[in-house]
Amino acid sequence: MKRIVVATHNNHKVKEISAILNIPGWELVPLSDHISNTIIDLPPENATTFTGNARIKARFAYDLTGCATLADDSGLVVDALDGAPGVYSARYAGEGATARQCNEKLLEALDGVKRNKRTARFVCSLIFIDEDGTEYAVEGTCEGHISTTPRGKNGFGYDPLFVPNDAQGNPGKRTLAQFSAAEKNAISHRAVALAALRKLAFQIQPDERIRIVAFDFDGTLIDAASPVRLVNRLVLHDHVMSFWVGVKIAFWGMRYKMGSELDQSLPRRYIFGSFTDFPSTYANSIMVSLYHEKLRYYFRPEALRRIEEHKQAGELIILVSASFDPILKEVTREIGADGYIATQMEINNKGYYTGRTIGFPPEGEQKLVQLTAYADMRFGKGNWVITWAYGDHFSDAPLLAAAEHAVAVDPCRRLNSIAKERGWEIMPLGVQRVKSQARRSLYQAD
Ligand code: IMP
User: Fold this and answer.
1) CA-based nearest residue to 13, from 185, 162, 165
2) Which pLDDT band holds residue 181 (cuts at 50, 70, 90)?
């Protein structure tokens, strides 16, 4: 791997840049890490333009290390303030001022200015100096307006006041602090500048591939295990299954959630074994009503929020679950996902379930194998990429590892340690579980 030394001490920026700038064969290293964890003061940024300031930092780091170097300078430009705070964005409310103080000062400066006169943009200038000293300069902007009240908790700096325009260039609704990191990285001034740099210095064209987000269902999108809920219903409600078989599967479900290595075919065998006495259409209607009467109240609000964000960022949502086709079909329809992969059970020529699966169920490695086959068929080989994958169980790890960004959602202990080891995002949803009454009220509106 060749190194690009990033001339900043702001780890937040290194993180944002590395999340966007993925150049095969190159790694990004903060300046302080490169020179064995020594903090070296960067020279004062006293130029009058963003590019000038970025150049001061890039030259300094290049002269010091002789490595390829990247530096950025960014800030907010507000039209009604003749371009202020501009290069003074970080110290708009004085040297060492907090972001909140800068935001307050900005609101005061714009007091009484009408909405259509509050136009502004974030600007990011980048200077990249390659190993032989050749300099590349690029700039990216993100257009929007300044809101009258701060909103949102994500991001940094002026994000709570900056409302980016929508994809059509019309005034948007949410502030950047109400965007997730992924959404911000798709449209930010830094992303635009980095895309320009990829093209100019590395001849990498923007990625036009279809972006797929893979979402596991049980334990990830919903706070429940649908096969276990199905057993529950077959025992208690429809009296199709014996109590003791139900207890056995409930016990299996507990151990599964704890991350034990288990035979995943067990609940399937019992469930479909109990369906052999009636036509598959009747068995399907039990699964569909289970979804509408129970499972849909177990959606995790945070997971639904992420799905909406991915949709808005133009990504396709594909559910990948070992649960059964009739259930996944309903979920896909209700949340407006773009497709699903689920366990297909064989039906004989009399229209009864045989208890056997058609091909392998999508579990473990098979989740990735089947998603790959599905996407190759639907979009064509090489035309798609898994940008994000969400799962809760260690058997989801091969799918998660194939994504550009993996998220372990309320993970079992084993997935939790895999995620920590590989630096995957961990969403601790356990603490956010919604009581079932509250869940119901979530849906009472519709
Ligand atoms: P510098 O590029 O480190 O000089 O800092 C520029 C300043 O502009 C930051 O401290 C922020 O106040 C602001 N800024 C730059 N980029 C962003 C952004 O993405 N969101 C919010 N504020 C930003």
Assistant:
1) 185
2) confident
